[in-house]
Design brief:
With 171 residues, this protein is of the alpha+beta class. It has one domain (2-161): Alpha-D-Glucose-1,6-Bisphosphate, Chain A, domain 4 (2-Layer Sandwich), CATH 3.30.530. 25% of the residues lie in helices and 39% in strands. The chain has helices at 14-22, 27-30, 112-115, 119-138, 143-148, and strands at 2-10, 34-43, 46-55, 58-69, 74-79, 85-94, 97-106. Strands 1-7-6-5-4-3-2 form a 7-stranded antiparallel sheet. β5 (74-79) and β6 (85-94) form a beta hairpin. The longest helix is centred in the last third of the chain and has 20 residues, at 119-138. The radius of gyration is 15 Å and the shape is globular.
Length: 171
């Protein structure tokens, strides 16, 4: 496994995009394998979360942490159960909207190289996740409506974009 990075331009203001992404209630909308995220309390500078989902035809449950830095429009996360899994994203202002830059770090489990996805598959899964973020934020009733509390039930579901590299339990 290793490190993976990607970015996507979104035709919405950076503050709106970050607010949408940092709200854990929205994570199942843009992370294709995630079906539920529950807060588990605040510890120091981060929030603990429990994540449930389905990847490669089986369910998973993981507990991890999420640190949001609204002033910098940056988030970092990791898993308590999957050693070597973590990531970050940053939303920056750009002409015509914003840019979301996503980074993942996935350390190999013993035996994972023989059974897990390769680098090209992981990069493709990361790109599908970025496409899902773009679709959710740019859809009518997307991130801007979420910011004002209107239209959040009308956001598209991300699962048509395929599985995500971000919470694959086989990595």
């Amino acid at each position: 496994m290793g490190d993976y990075a990607g970015r996507v331009e979104i035709a919405r203001p950076a503050a709106e995009v970050f607010a949408f992404l940092a709200d854990i209630r929205n994570m199942p909308r843009y992370l294709p394998t995630v079906t539920r995220v529950d807060p588990q309390g605040r510890h120091g500078d981060h929030d603990d979360v429990a994540v449930e989902g389905r990847a490669e035809d089986h369910g998973y449950h993981d507990e991890g942490w999420l640190k949001a830095e609204p002033e910098a429009r940056r988030m970092q996360w990791g898993s308590h159960g999957q050693h070597g899994y973590g990531g970050s994203l940053e939303v920056t202002a750009a002409e015509g909207g914003s840019v979301v830059a996503l980074q993942l770090h996935l350390a190999s489990k013993p035996g994972a190289a023989a059974h897990g996805p390769g680098d090209a598959e992981m990069q493709a899964a990361l790109q599908r996740t970025l496409a899902s973020i773009k679709a959710c934020c740019e859809a009518p009733g997307g991130a801007a409506a979420q910011e004002t509390g209107q239209g959040t039930d009308e956001l598209p579901d991300s699962r048509p974009f395929g599985s995500s590299a971000t919470m694959n339990p086989d990595l």
